[in-house]
Request: fold
Amino acid sequence: MNENLQAAVDAIQAEFGASLQTFRGEHTLILAREQIAAAAQALRDRFQFEMLVDVTAVDYWPQEEPRFHVIYQFNSVSHHGLLRVRVPLSAAEPKVPTLEGVYPGANWYEREVWDMFGIQFEGHSDLRRIIMPYDWVGHPLRKDYPLGYEEVQFTFNFDDISLRKPHPKE
Amino acid sequence: MTEIREVSVDELRHLVSDRARSGETMLLNMGPQHPSTHGVLRLLLELDGETVVSCIPDIGFLHTGVEKNMESKNYQQAEVMTDRLDYLNPIGNNLVYSLAVEKLLDLDVPERAQVIRVILAELTRINSHLVWVGTSALDLGAMSLFLYAMRERELILDIFEMCAGQRMMTTYVRPGGLWRDVPVEFEAAVRDFLALMPARLDEYERLLNNNPLFLERTSQIGIISKEDCLRYAATGPVLRAAGMAYDLRKARPYSGYETYDFDIPTETAGDVRARYLVRMAEMRQSLRIIQQGMDRLPYGPVRSNNRKYVPPPRSEIGVSMEALIHHFKLWTEGFSAPQGSVYATIESPRGELGVFLESDGGPKPYRVHFRTPTFPNLQIMPLLSRGHFVADVVAIIGSIDIVLGDADR
Reply:
């Protein structure tokens, strides 16, 4: 861990009550969702984490509490430091404040997480689906969303399966 | 039958100016079938006459659900899908996925495999940049360059074919090393390519660098500052053309890049021309790296000896019971990775390519996420195109080098 990263980790732990996990030399801070906007502001302004390189999520269904982790990757270009922040969210209330105000680049990433996981970003300026079609139902990367397989059609059941199989829109 | 719902201007009101609602400015759809959008990108342009007032990119037409699919495959099977993401950078995608799995498993890679990985990754970078220079010059009307660039690209694809048996979907770099060793013809083919390429690059530059039409179409078009690049997490040649020497091969070296001698080309203008110059210079640096790799290419194994994760060589299976058991276990149920999550990155031809991999301890990845460079780079399209002509939008799309398979995943 280089000095800047160490200082950032210590400060975020002390000020925002985060806990630290280290695996294979990578450092992950676990933060409550109320703290994420202020912590991101501190990381950018005080510790030169200029880039928010990635926002994604993991679904731990059927576990309810927490069901989701939103994962942020902060990159410090000037100090070559990479820091991961996880925000656990419950199944009942999958909401987290947006980071768009701190990092404008979070806009599309948060739209993607909304699209794929149905996690809402409070205060987001443009929370539309980005990858799936506008009228899509459901959030595909949730673990309770089926992957979908096609049934094999034989001569004796060809018509039955044809009737119940989803067809592309005319 | 559900009805197809189209998005109305009302839903996009916050993205267009008030003048669009009164009909003073025009909304124009560009794509998804427009040839200059390099695949299936759709841009909704708000135009005041010929000038772009706002630009709303719409992506997702090439979404293939790779991340969801990988969750139902084991680690070896999932790798095959990585080729299909950024189809101009197959080796890079294999490499970043393998690096993530190796980090998760704490697996060592033999020296020879590391060097071959670097050589092939740099060949892929040249391959991708050749397609880029050909197509983006074609968009601006320089037809002949496209043919020249494709001619040279064919040589690289031949090298991939002799290594992997495949020209584009290689799946050659595997967790723990490579699929197999390179064939004996590899060295001669790469050395021939190294001897040929500098003169060919000179030829391209003679065609474009001082071409008045090309200068007119690229200078002072689509300018972005270093600060904006950082705020929007735009990486790769876009960031370097804006004046920041940031390259993950130097910042967070992988596969032994710290031992190679090369420079990071930068420009300060941040316009389309600067991005062109950076990519042309990068190809020359890649040639330097390949040259060093070929000179040091050591002999030895190309796969890790850790049989719990890496399959044994075919020759051992006939004589060793242990090898047969390992082979059987690896190809039926796969290996179980320890619980945890890792993030591995490489410098792809387009910027930072990262893989976030989470394992729950089973033989299948619990979650794979690709942090692809095209996705954030496309997000700056509205910034780049504002105030320019429609024809310049074509030049700008070309200059950020989009691959929609990379953005939509």
